[in-house]
Structure to design on (698 residues):
């Protein structure tokens, strides 16, 4: 079983096991676990065979947005990432030749339930939860729904501490804990109803919203709709991109941090934004080796403290590099990368191949804004917040939800005053891209014990300033974007070190041995990896080697899920030591020159397995309408409703010299989420397999 039984932050829950089969093979799952996670826990990564060519397929988004993880469960085709395992369930590989099951349909209920509320919030992530709490404070009748079995959105996947402002967005607290805090707030407001496992299917022209709650369909009539639906991951077109083992960073975090399943041994990542950098760190926490991370731009777009954090642990971060291809017979076995020039063209002869069983694509997000568009078309009071409005950090999403709630209050006539202008200014700061990176300042004091602040990039963050009991850590400017500085007395309490989201503070103590001071270093990779008396390698801020040091002590602060490793350092390294190196950097193997060539067989539309070459030929023949492209090639016709390929198709038009403004977009489907047609009329179907299992009686 590929389960994570020890984690520095997450504690496995005691849950009942259930038995099921996959293609006749006996398997075990945890009660309530999604089929996809259960299959990974049993070492199974191939879920289906494409009907077009029999190619193996695995997961991609693990968020219900695509259809790559589809399987046959008790005779019905389902998305395994959003379908829970049941005792005795028979799960099978979905194959092109699979026959439709025989079913018996019955009328289960007659009248569709209807519900009136002042505000409906679609999405229970950070922005939606923050908005619900603000509305609840003033007694507004509010319904918040989410299609998962718990609220929090991507927060439940985040084991790292958050940046931003302590007073505005719980900075210094781990995402998994913030999710719990936000959900707990809702219990204080009786006017707020919260529905888990409730999927918005569509917003109709009569201003009603169709919601599937479990297997029951209802219509909600809200006075205002807030779309807090978040974002979906973008993909990339390259040879081998559909191999099992190639998937999104969010899917990886779902497996590792939500379900405590170890899906990889050797991981490679494409994308140097915060999503990719954080996923690398989460992998290290789960005991997975990260063999490399690449970014096509000259520098990573994520926070430098995230980048430095993984560099220091031994992960090579290669900028000006791109993915060339992924290879493997049935599953991913290796990835090949190459350098790119200023025009992002591959430099011949620079290809390198790395052995890897998992490749994460972390190249950006697209807002899930379909429901907001439908609400506006229906003439409703429509509002949007969080990533559904603009891609930013979760800290900004929380504040965005708060602001949006006050817009709703004004629209409903509950509050006459407009949103304070300084709130918008604060939101802009929380959404800020990283600013300048300043050089390390020379020490100008002779304190016997003091913190060394290794974060030198301008990002919105103030936990260390807030927590210092002596008020000796201050921002160097008036803005929260300013870098911190030490000015005062230090008592060595470790509070700043324990709260720092970037693990970018150490404490140097010269009181016992001025010539060979001790350095307290934060560490949250794994308990037991480092022990008193060990010899460890120290690394500098950007990962430079500082030689070996002796471990004097290991302190475990379980309340913060952070350990502090105290090492004995030399006088020349004490102020520079930031972390311990865990892994040696891998250089890869030089690849054959022809691997850097473009491949027209690259799959762009995963659902219909339409190649880059087919799409290029259609564009060159004069196609300028995505609907026409769909008719000619079937691109965008699959089960995901073009959610996965639409951005890539636009990029292909651009690469062929066609201005995207000349391209007619896809006609949006009336339903953005797949649902059995019977739910709209109260009809429920039972398959032969279900009948034999006896899990449902009619």
């Amino acid at each position: 079983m590929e389960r994570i039984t020890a984690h520095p932050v997450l504690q496995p829950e005691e849950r009942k096991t259930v038995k099921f089969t996959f293609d006749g093979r006996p398997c075990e799952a945890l009660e309530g676990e999604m089929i996809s996670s259960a299959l990974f826990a049993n070492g199974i990564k191939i879920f289906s065979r494409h009907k077009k060519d029999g190619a193996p397929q695995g997961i991609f988004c693990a968020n219900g947005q695509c259809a790559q993880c589809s399987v046959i469960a008790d005779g019905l085709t389902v998305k395994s990432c959003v379908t829970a395992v049941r005792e005795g369930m028979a799960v099978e590989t979905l194959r092109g030749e699979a026959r439709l099951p025989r079913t018996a349909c019955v009328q289960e209920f007659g009248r569709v339930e209807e519900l009136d509320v002042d505000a409906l919030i679609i999405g229970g992530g950070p922005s939606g939860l923050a908005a619900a709490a603000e509305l609840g404070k003033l007694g507004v009748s509010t319904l918040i729904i989410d299609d998962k079995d718990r609220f929090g959105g991507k927060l439940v996947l985040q084991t790292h501490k958050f940046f931003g402002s302590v007073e505005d967005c719980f900075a210094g607290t781990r995402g998994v804990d913030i999710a719990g805090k936000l959900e707990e707030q809702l219990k204080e407001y009786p006017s707020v109803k919260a529905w888990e496992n409730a999927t918005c299917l569509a917003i109709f022209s009569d201003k009603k919203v169709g919601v599937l709650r479990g297997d029951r369909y209802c219509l909600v009539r809200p006075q205002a709709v807030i779309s807090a639906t978040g974002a979906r991951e973008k993909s990339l077109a390259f040879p081998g991109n559909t191999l099992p083992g190639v998937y999104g960073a969010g899917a990886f975090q779902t497996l590792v941090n939500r379900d405590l399943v170890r899906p990889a041994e050797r991981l490679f990542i494409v994308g140097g934004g915060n999503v990719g950098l954080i996923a690398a760190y989460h992998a290290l926490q789960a005991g997975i080796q990260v063999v490399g991370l690449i970014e096509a731009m000259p520098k990573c777009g994520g926070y430098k403290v995230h980048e430095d954090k993984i560099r220091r642990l031994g992960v090579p971060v290669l900028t000006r590099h791109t993915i060339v291809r992924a290879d493997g017979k049935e599953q991913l076995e290796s990835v090949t990368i190459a350098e790119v020039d200023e025009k992002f063209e591959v430099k011949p002869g620079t290809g390198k191949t790395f052995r890897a069983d998992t490749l994460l694509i972390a190249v950006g997000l697209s807002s899930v804004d379909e429901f907001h568009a439908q609400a506006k078309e229906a003439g409703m009071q429509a509002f949007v917040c969080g990533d559904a409005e603009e891609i930013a950090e979760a800290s900004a999403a929380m504040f965005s939800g708060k602001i949006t709630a006050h817009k709703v209050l004004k629209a409903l006539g509950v509050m006459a005053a407009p949103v304070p202008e300084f709130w918008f200014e604060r939101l802009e700061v929380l959404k800020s891209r990283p600013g300048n990176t300043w050089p390390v300042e020379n020490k100008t004091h002779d304190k016997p014990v003091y913190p060394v602040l290794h974060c030198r990039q301008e990002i919105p963050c103030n936990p260390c300033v807030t927590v210092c009991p002596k008020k000796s850590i201050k921002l160097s400017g008036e803005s929260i974007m300013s870098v911190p500085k030490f000015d005062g007395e230090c008592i060595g309490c470790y509070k700043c070190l324990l709260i720092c989201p970037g693990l970018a503070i150490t404490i140097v103590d010269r009181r016992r041995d001025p010539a060979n001071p001790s350095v307290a270093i934060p560490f949250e990779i794994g308990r037991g990896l480092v022990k008193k008396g060990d010899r460890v390698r120290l690394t500098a801020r950007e990962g430079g080697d500082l030689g070996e040091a002796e471990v004097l002590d290991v302190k475990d602060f379980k309340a913060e899920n952070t350990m502090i490793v105290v090492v004995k350092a030399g006088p020349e390294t004490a102020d520079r030591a930031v972390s311990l190196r865990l892994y040696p950097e891998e250089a890869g193997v030089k690849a054959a020159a022809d691997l850097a060539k473009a491949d027209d067989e690259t799959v762009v539309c995963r659902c219909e397995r339409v190649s880059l070459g087919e799409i290029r030929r259609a564009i060159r023949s004069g196609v300028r309408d995505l609907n026409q492209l769909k008719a000619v090639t079937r691109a965008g016709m699959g089960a995901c409703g073009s959610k996965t390929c639409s951005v890539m198709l636009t990029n292909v038009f651009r690469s062929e010299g066609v201005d995207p403004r000349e391209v007619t977009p896809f006609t949006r489907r009336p339903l953005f989420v797949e649902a059995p047609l019977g739910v709209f009329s109260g009809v429920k179907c039972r398959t032969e397999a279900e009948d034999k299992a006896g899990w449902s009686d009619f």
